Amino acid sequence: MSDFLQETRRRRTFAIISHPDAGKTTLTEKLLLFSGAIHIAGSVKARKASRHATSDWMEIEKQRGISVASSVMQMLYRDCVINLLDTPGHKDFSEDTYRVLTAVDAALMVIDAANGVEPQTRRLIEVCRQRDTPIITFINKMDREGREPLELLDEVERELGMPCVPMTWPVGQGKAFGGIVDLRKQQMRLFAPGEAKRGDDDEIVPLAQAEQLRARFGHDFEQAEGNIELVREAAPAFDEEAFVGAQQTPVFFGSGVNNFGVQEVLDALVDLAPPPAARHVTRADGSEHEVPPHGEGFSGVVFKVQANMDPSHRDRIAFVRVNSGRYESGMKLRVQRTAKELRPTSVVTFLSQRREAVEEAYAGDIIGFTTHGGVQLGDTITHGDAPADFGTFTGLPFFAPELFQTVELANPMKSKQLQQGLMQLGEEGAIQVFRPNTGGAMLLGAVGQLQFEVVQHRLKTEYAVDIRLMPCRFTGARWVTCDDAAAMKKFVDENEGKLALDAADTLAYLLTSAYDLRLSQERYPKVVFHPLREHA
Ligand code: G4P
């Protein structure tokens, strides 16, 4: 087997998703602890500045700072290299989350046993479903009184639109939580609270000794046995192909804070989650081809750009998901969009607690290129010698903003800094910037209100520009395309005042009311109004 194939096959890259407070941070930390990537619980948690959704931009700033270090974590477990990607919890940054989900091969969904599937989880599920991302489900907080396991499974099944396949089953719950039965290994892991222990410390009893378990856990064990029998009849057997094709989700129960049920999840990531698969690229002539992960030439895609924390340096980190080949330090690189060479000042890999210069990386890995510019969200980066018509990876979504504000400059002398700041923040995906065709003030478009606050604050602190944000009449946008040049010209001529170019110079039509879209579609049937733009 080639080295490439071997290295690719041992990669697992997944995102951890949940509604805030379900226990994502805790579980992340425990996965790192169990893999040996960190030694003391509390280190990830400590970096989480504020757990709660907040409308205070100072907190958001702190979170932003923290996320550079903690949003990508690599760990070794058994013979696998596991890349774990965190997703922002706040709904106003959901665009970021969607993009992170384009960079993974599976998702780990954390659900609070008392709350079930919560609104934010629902949105994330939709994105996973669109992309057919396989989902592993972890039902957390079994040490607290929660809902019946059967009821929870039913809800997950309905929300996901796919059957649940329990891999473990809880015995009791809350104060009476006795542990979990591993349905594959036919053994029960007995629950003992505490943050200091590892999986090896738990008492394990084979189901062959069910009498002993019945004696210890009484009714709870018998009820679990009954439920296990019930789901064995009702639920399908675990089928790897169905899971990888997002047709069923394996479900695990546990308690993250008590290090309980974590081992099973980590093993599932290695045993069940898929290694990187081939990815599509589109060439300039519109033709598509597949890039196999073990293909020799290095290629990757930028799914996140983040300004560095030191405001005196305008450098940014472009997070690249490697899609094929091997990255080696010092390698010549090219940005396919511009055909220009990329000369990063540093290239790092993200270990659990630190960044480290990367020696080599394979498909599935995430590496960070520090640059002074020249890279945008969605860019395809290849080896410098890759063919000029390599094409670009598609699928990175930009959502049509739902909120708009116009920018007014407090000091007109700062117009150049404003342009530069907005361009860079736009390239990061922090906000969408639109230039109206008829001139006039620049427009900012966002999906969540907090994005405006962050941009205003960052313009001030990083670019020394004070802006005022003013309400404006626009309530939405659609990117427009049309195969018929004459029809397009007519549309453009008649709507000049409502057209704008976005940061990628793609034409957008700005909506002023809910009816606007319907009326325009009727009036210009040949024009297509897109709610989503994929980076091309
Ligand atoms: P998040 O990243 O999804 O937002 O959640 P996070 O891990 O921060 O967990 C949210 C709260 O739930 C924390 O409590 C955490 O300790 C608790 N938690 C996580 N897993 C479990 C579990 O298995 N059982 C129980 N009972 N609680 C759990 P907190 O009181 O808000 O914070 P802290 O002071 O304990 O850190």
Automatic annotation (TrEMBL):
State if Manganese is listed as a keyword: no
Question: GO biological process annotations for this chain's record?
Answer: regulation of translational termination
Would I find Protein biosynthesis among this entry's keywords? yes
Q: CDD domains, per this entry?
A: RF3
Which PROSITE patterns does this one have? G_TR_1, G_TR_2
Q: Which organism is it from?
A: Rivibacter subsaxonicus
SUPFAM superfamilies on file: EF-G C-terminal domain-like, P-loop containing nucleoside triphosphate hydrolases, Translation proteins
**One GO CC term on file:** cytosol
The entry's protein name is Peptide chain release factor 3
The positions annotated for binding GTP are 18-25, 86-90, 140-143
User: What task does this protein carry out?
Assistant: Increases the formation of ribosomal termination complexes and stimulates activities of RF-1 and RF-2. It binds guanine nucleotides and has strong preference for UGA stop codons. It may interact directly with the ribosome. The stimulation of RF-1 and RF-2 is significantly reduced by GTP and GDP, but not by GMP.
Location in the cell:
Cytoplasm
Q: Give the organism's phylogenetic lineage.
A: Bacteria, Pseudomonadati, Pseudomonadota, Betaproteobacteria, Burkholderiales
Every copy of the Tr-type G domain together lies at: 9-277
The record's comment on protein family reads: Belongs to the TRAFAC class translation factor GTPase superfamily. Classic translation factor GTPase family. PrfC subfamily.
GO terms (molecular function) for this protein are:
GTP binding; GTPase activity; guanosine tetraphosphate binding; translation release factor activity, codon nonspecific; translation release factor activity, codon specific
Q: Which gene encodes it?
A: prfC
UniProt keywords, alphabetically: Cytoplasm, GTP-binding, Nucleotide-binding, Protein biosynthesis
Domain of life (superkingdom): Bacteria
